[in-house]
Amino acid sequence: MNKIPAFGLGTFRLQDQVVIDSVRNGLELGYRAIDTAQIYGNEAEVGEAVAASGVRRDELFLTTKIWVDNYAPDKLVPSLEESLRKLRTDYVDLTLIHWPAPGNGVPVETFMTALAQAREKGLTRQIGVSNFNIALTRQAIAAVGKDAIATNQIELSPYLQNRELVGFLQREGIHVTSYMTLAYGKVLGDPVIGAIAQRHQATPAQVVLAWALQLGYSVIPSSTKRENLASNLLAQTLQLSEDDMAQIAALERNGREVSPDGLAPQWD
């Protein structure tokens, strides 16, 4: 069963007071899922904002991601324990392997087994992967079983629809989480998206997020502006037509924004 919230708050590239304000505003507006990562360097600030919010821990869904330097079995659990200290919590709801980093010397089986052990210790409720292609997802499944992998968090937008990978994940019953859904804002100026937004008296961001939600993906958009955080939430009630969905489907252009050398796999 998919236990991952459909709508969350991303914190990539947000630092210091900016991330504190974003998380505080998000929680005040009703966000209950927050996505961070060890490499973002903002877990402590996220923890500070959550603690100050007064929102009960059991109402929140916190995700973090293990950085590549911590994949070795003797480092993974201690690094997650450090993340928990920063986040001021006894557990996270979801922990992901951030990048497959095929050249970093730690086999998929090794770090997935260590991640499963972190779950057994109660440090995380669910585990998963991020930025894994089909071949590497197969290796992760071989290590821990597909039922153990709650999601694959992947770059996915109208310009990068990743249909082959998504089809594989859906056949395996692994939930898809879309990040960079707005393609760094590039899709917001798209005339097709703009026309759909006008028809629905919605914003382009709402249209794109609604598109991803209707395809069954979770989304984790970020914003530093309270009004945008509030506006994005309304995507959950926007119903696009089959024609709208078909028009967005036609925008595919393999427009990948993120593919760091040494970390990214061979993309499908």
Give short descriptive properties of this protein.
single chain, 268 residues, TIM Barrel, 8 strands, globular
Provide a short characterization of the protein structure.
The protein is an alpha/beta fold and 268 residues long. The chain is built from 10 helices and 8 strands.
Task: Tell me about this structure.
The chain has 268 residues and is an alpha/beta fold. The protein has a single domain, classed as NADP-dependent oxidoreductase domain (TIM Barrel, Alpha-Beta Barrel). The protein is built from 10 helices and 8 strands. An 8-stranded parallel beta sheet has the order 1-2-3-4-5-6-7-8. Helix 1 (16-29) links the parallel strand 1 (9-10) and strand 2 (33-35). It is globular. It starts with 8 loop residues before the first strand and ends in a 19-residue tail after the last helix. The mean pLDDT is 97.
Number of helices: 10
User: Which percent band covers the strand fraction?
Assistant: 5-15%
Instruction: Return the CATH architecture.
Output: Alpha-Beta Barrel
Radius of gyration using CA atoms only: 18 Å
The parts where pLDDT drops under 50 for at least 5 residues are: none
> Which strand order do you get reading across the main beta sheet?
1-2-3-4-5-6-7-8
Report the biggest beta sheet as strand number plus sense, adding barrel if it closes.
8 strands, parallel
CATH class: Alpha Beta
Element string (H = helix, E = strand): EHEHEHEHEHEHEHHEHH
Structural class estimated from helices and strands: alpha/beta
User: What multimeric state do the chains show?
Assistant: single chain
Number of domains: 1
Mean pLDDT: 97
The percentage helix is 40-55%
